[in-house]
Amino acid sequence: MAIDHLDGRIIVLLAREPRIGVLEMSRRLGVARGTVQARLDRLLARGVIRGFGPEVDPAALGYPVTAFATLQIRQGQGAEVRAHLAGVPEVLELHTTTGTGDMLCRLVARSNADLQRVIDRVVAIDGIVRASTAIVMENPVPLRVIPLVEQAAQE
Amino acid sequence: MAIDHLDGRIIVLLAREPRIGVLEMSRRLGVARGTVQARLDRLLARGVIRGFGPEVDPAALGYPVTAFATLQIRQGQGAEVRAHLAGVPEVLELHTTTGTGDMLCRLVARSNADLQRVIDRVVAIDGIVRASTAIVMENPVPLRVIPLVEQAAQE
DNA sequence: GCATCCACTGGGCAATCTGTCCGGTGAGAC
DNA sequence: GTCTCACCGGACAGATTGCCCAGTGGATGC
């Protein structure tokens, strides 16, 4: 089994109030402190919780424009392209995918004009045959996991 | 200006060792504790740092398959579609975009077979005209912000 | 039936960190 | 020259952490 009900409640609680601390959690959940501590350790050890890194808002950093670029890669050039993209700070995320494109990456830029600079930099390598970009206008559902955790914990 | 050098070092330090605490940070950075505390408060107040939510790995939760779906929406049905997708736990993220598709969403599923169920649920609303899905195979660059922070802090 | 293992409870301990003050200093703005 | 602001270095009580312990209850295996 992935996680049980108590694990789920711990994660959800932690997601809602990250600064909460083990002691306060144990109070809210009505279990002993040692239990929460042990559960947390296990969740971290199993990799269910990867960490507690700060969530940084690129917009507040001066990068309010987000875009997704679909890239088509020349056969056998995958490794080079990956390394190249990993070196571009504005590439926040990169996936290799099935389908018409071969890679999908998330970009940020200082402005729509600046996005051109970023894309130029992204495609400045031979291995990329074609790139098509979609600019993000709104983000109705920001990255979230709570609903998934709740679903996973119910079983 | 967005963030200065010290802000950048604080964020990077926090990203690398999230459990670190203000006191230890002040030691590592060679500044007074009050300074780090004030900087952190400001970063949080300005929204540069949104929070410290736990990073949950969907794979460890039993959802090892990730996919991106591009959706075409019938004119004027945007709101309904958003609400519908927000109610699907496997939809981790939703963006409205320019370009051929109208929305882009990130999905997870228990297996490739299960992905079919998720997609069926996603498209189970009138407003979606067409959906095209790309399954993620690898994730050479997991979501990251450190390089961007470092770049933003240099100026 | 009985022993064993495991998770949880409830408690206690010292060490550490947090939140919050304070006065003093230096740099830049007016 | 004066003011404002950020930073420093230090202080304080209060709370939390990491760690330990013995006891309990359920599940498992013999």
Q: Mind explaining what this structure looks like?
A:
The structure is a homodimer of 155-residue chains. Chain A has 155 residues and is of the alpha+beta class. The first copy, chain A, has 6 helices and 6 strands, in the order H-H-H-E-E-E-H-E-E-H-E-H. Chain A has a 4-stranded antiparallel sheet with strand order 4-5-3-6. The termini of chain A are close together. In chain A, 37% of the residues are buried. At the A-B interface, helix 1, strand 1, strand 2, helix 4 and strand 4 of A face helix 1, strand 1, strand 2, helix 4 and strand 4 of B. Strand 4 of chain A pairs antiparallel with strand 6 of chain B. Chain A binds a DNA duplex (30 and 30 nucleotides) through helix 2 and helix 3.
Biggest β-sheet strands, sense, barrel of chain A: 4 strands, antiparallel
For the largest sheet of chain A, list the strands in their spatial order.
Answer: 4-5-3-6
What sequence of helices (H) and strands (E) makes up the elements of chain A? HHHEEEHEEHEH
In DSSP terms (H or I, runs of 4 or more residues), the helix count of chain A works out at 6
Low-confidence stretches of chain A: none
| Nearest-integer average pLDDT of chain A | 94
- Helical content of chain A stands at 40-55%
> Which percent range describes the beta-strand content of chain A?
25-35%
Query: What is the number of beta strands of chain A?
Result: 6
- Supply the helix-strand structural class of chain A: alpha+beta
**Which two chains form the greatest contact, residue counts included?**
A-B, 67 and 67 residues
- The outline of chain A comes out as elongated
Specify the oligomeric state.
homodimer
Q: Which value, in Å, is the CA radius of gyration of chain A?
A: 20 Å
Terminal CA distance of chain A reads 9 Å
Pfam family, one (chains A, B): HTH_24
Keywords (chains A, B): DNA-binding, Transcription, Transcription regulation
Domain HTH asnC-type (chains A, B): 3-64
InterPro entries (chains A, B): AsnC-type_HTH_dom (IPR000485), Dimeric_a/b-barrel (IPR011008), Tscrpt_reg_AsnC-like (IPR019888), Tscrpt_reg_AsnC/Lrp_C (IPR019887), WH-like_DNA-bd_sf (IPR036388), WH_DNA-bd_sf (IPR036390)
